[in-house]
């Protein structure tokens, strides 16, 4: 059995991710971030999409494909659980790719934020999209 060190310093099984105490704290933070995020969203069409059964099924399949791990972290030899399935080509640019698994990748929150910051710079957007595609190809 592979072990890892939790953020609090305890040793836990790799598949567990973190100790129970840290897991409770992380889950509450995740829920609060999600509440804050939903409160700021105004695009009801996107909200309907992300709550749809086809999206939930596709998201679960991508998560399974990526073993529940952030693929950017994994490419840098880091093991970090994913919490977001990211559209490489955003919905706003091509909604026909919304459920295409080759356009989706598992990311942790930190990498997801980093990717979106890079999307703001045209040349960086192209480069990061190319890298993301290579990680799932």
From TrEMBL:
Q: What species is this protein from? A: Bacillus toyonensis
- CDD domains documented for this protein: HNHc (cd00085)
Q: Report the sequence similarity comment from the record.
A: Belongs to the HNH nuclease family.
Keyword Hydrolase annotated: yes
Xref: InterPro entries? HNH, HNH_nuc
Superkingdom is: Bacteria
Give the GO molecular function terms.
Answer: endonuclease activity; hydrolase activity; nucleic acid binding; zinc ion binding
> Is Nuclease among this UniProt entry's keywords?
yes
Recorded protein name is Putative HNH nuclease YajD
Q: Give any Gene Ontology cellular component.
A: cytosol
Positions of the HNH nuclease domain: 57-113
Keywords (A to Z) from UniProt: Endonuclease, Hydrolase, Nuclease
